[in-house]
Amino acid sequence: MMTVRATPDNSSPSTRVDPARQTQRRAIGAVIRETRKRQRRTLADVATATGLSISLLSQIERGIVGPSLDSLRTIAEAFGTSPFQLLLGAADLPGQAVTVRKGGGVYLPAPEFTEFQLLSPTLKSAFEVGKWTLPPGVASSYSPRSHAGIEANYVLAGRIKMRLADEVTELDEGDFVMFDAALPHQVTVLSDIPATVIFVICPPSF
């Protein structure tokens, strides 16, 4: 199982990136490059499909910059997949129960999040379970986005504002919400501490 930790930047090379994070950025860049080449597509093809510049895509593939979650989702969708599926590949469902220990699982390189973790050991099942932590005042995406399936969120810590289509709901620690993920949605942290949320999506689509 591939593990990719969050990266610190999504728009420009950092002048002070430690070697471990550079390695992590190169890892996700290599996955994107290999997927693009396997599909026999050029950078220009992917740029057209995503609306991202060829220059940015090239920098992402070379690990010079880390993609934001929005950019990674857009790239994955252009490849006909999702961010976690892009990282996991064709992992099969284990034949018996699997324990994911603390710090394990797959981490998306989403610099706007403190952490974005897949807890499920595979995406070849009826649902996926994950956890994310978002800093105070930060939104989960530049604008509300949608995806297939039903999604449920349980707030472990902090206070969030969820925009779901034309409705806005505020959720505190211990609150739970379930909704049709086909409706555009976006989360913004209202608390002065990071917000941590457990999410479940059925069927897996992230």
Write structural notes for this entry.
By secondary structure, this protein is an alpha+beta fold. The protein has 2 domains: 70 residues, Orthogonal Bundle (434 Repressor (Amino-terminal Domain)); 77 residues, Sandwich (Jelly Rolls). It has 5 helices and 9 strands. The strands form 2 sheets. Strands 1-2-3-9-4-7 form a 6-stranded antiparallel sheet. Strand 5 and strand 6 form a beta hairpin. The radius of gyration is 17 Å and the shape is globular. 33% of the residues are buried. The N terminus is likely disordered.
Secondary-structure topology with pairs:
Layout: H1 19-38, H2 43-50, H3 54-61, H4 69-78, H5 83-88, E1 106-107, E2 115-118, E3 128-134, E4 150-157, E5 160-164, E6 167-171, E7 176-180, E8 185-189, E9 195-202
Antiparallel strand pairs: 1-2, 2-3, 3-9, 4-7, 4-9, 5-6, 5-8
> What is the mean pLDDT?
84
Gap between N and C termini, in Å? 16 Å
Strand content: 15-25%
Number of strands: 9
- From the spread of the alpha carbons, the general shape counts as globular
Please identify the top-level CATH class of the largest domain. Mainly Beta
> How many distinct domains?
2
Question: What is the N-to-C order of secondary-structure elements (H for helix, E for strand)?
Answer: HHHHHEEEEEEEEE
What's the name of the CATH homologous superfamily of the largest domain? Jelly Rolls
Largest sheet: 6 strands, antiparallel
Question: Given the helix and strand composition, which structural class is it?
Answer: alpha+beta
How much helicity do the residues have?
Answer: 25-40%
CATH topology of the largest domain: Jelly Rolls
The assigned CATH architecture of the largest domain is Sandwich
Radius of gyration: 17 Å
Number of helices: 5
Strand order of the largest sheet: 1-2-3-9-4-7
